[in-house]
């Protein structure tokens, strides 16, 4: 007899408000893991007026991810809140609209474009190197997370929009200061039973609105530049050189993209490309300053593959940075920036022993399984070697590892993100030694749509 989701166990709640008072949003992903240990890999949270099914079992997560866009959509409330925040793009589109957005976005981020835009991407890497050389010379502790956020935005703008932003060398505040207000507010609103900001705007709501306005202003500048370029070089219509041009061309065809959707996709890419990759790099710095033995492997590989170059100047060599990629994957197993995803069923169905009803809200969290011996040998140990072809780890079940999602909506920026990680780590370990200045214990996981590291400082030294 299939189990109805209403019959699931879960933490005991208060009358009327259920589990709402005990939910600690910045720590939600950890609470979910702890409850999974207590109630099993499929359980229920009582949110007073509604309920949420929590799934940490990898086989079910995979089935949900694969059944999109037809049987599951992203949580409708989340899609609407993102849209209301001015972002109407591939991430929160569904059905036919999603198919159209996805095709254009995925093409614009593919390997062909990465190769073509590698030279301008190297200019950005060199700027990062120059900044870090100065930091190493001064010997002062500094905020490396700021540099990583600026690096990733500059890379996305170059690759996807053909636009040089150079926020890395910009003094004072930059677009990132606005961007960092957007994800936390979206996450907060998704988790609020009542959308109070529609009635009364707090200071944080006003700051969010101002941030969205600033980002739209920037994106409108991109759009005018792209439109001008298409006018000046009509041959680009046959063979667009970047994602911005592809979207603008599609928008000219009736019934495809509205101007709001053009804006929405540019904002989506700026946001999706910045936060995720920068925080992944930030967690790498955190873990590598704990597991210093892995630094040795990175140095050896950088020396071997880069030779006399201070950074990875030959694009084709990036695939040879196997250990570097293994370190990145292992880091994502411990510190995934997107461990939680939210879905809604569009029809009644059965998955494994459960009956799912149309409209059912489901939250998936995959790290809970990825840190268990059932899925990865010595799961609690940081072992980058497990990701190498020659690994001898007997248990290695990648079904439990979905840092980039899976199925038809898996992250189209995956290859770009891995390339950025290879570029930054190989440059860092070829040239510098890194030391964490902040105590590791003082650096918390903070869930704010992406799971980021709290503020910290590092010190660099030139390698001798
Ligand atoms: C380490 C870095 C990154 C991580 C961990 C990450 C993770 C994810 C995850 C988990 C999803 C949801 C996948 C799903 O629903 O199955 C996603 C979607 C997406 N990501 Fe990434 N991402 C990263 C970097 C990037 C970059 C660099 C870009 C582009 C510049 C990007 C663009 C997107 C887009 C457009 C989507 C929506 C895809 C869709 O709904 O069809 N991501 N990403």
What does this structure look like?
The structure is a single chain. The protein is α+β, with helices and mostly antiparallel strands. The protein has a domain at 78-332 and 369-382 and 409-462: Orthogonal Bundle (Cytochrome p450), CATH 1.10.630.10. It has helices at residues 28-39, 58-66, 76-84, 95-108, 111-116, 118-138, 144-161, 175-190, 203-232, 243-252, 259-288, 292-306, 322-334, 367-370, 414-431, and strands at residues 3-4, 42-46, 51-55, 72-74, 340-345, 349-351, 354-356, 361-365, 432-436, 445-448, 450-453, 458-462. Helix 3 packs antiparallel against helix 8, helix 7 runs antiparallel to helix 11 and helix 12 runs antiparallel to helix 13. The chain is globular. The model has no long low-confidence stretch (mean pLDDT 93). The site of protoporphyrin IX containing FE has 28 residues, from helix 4, helix 11 and helix 15.
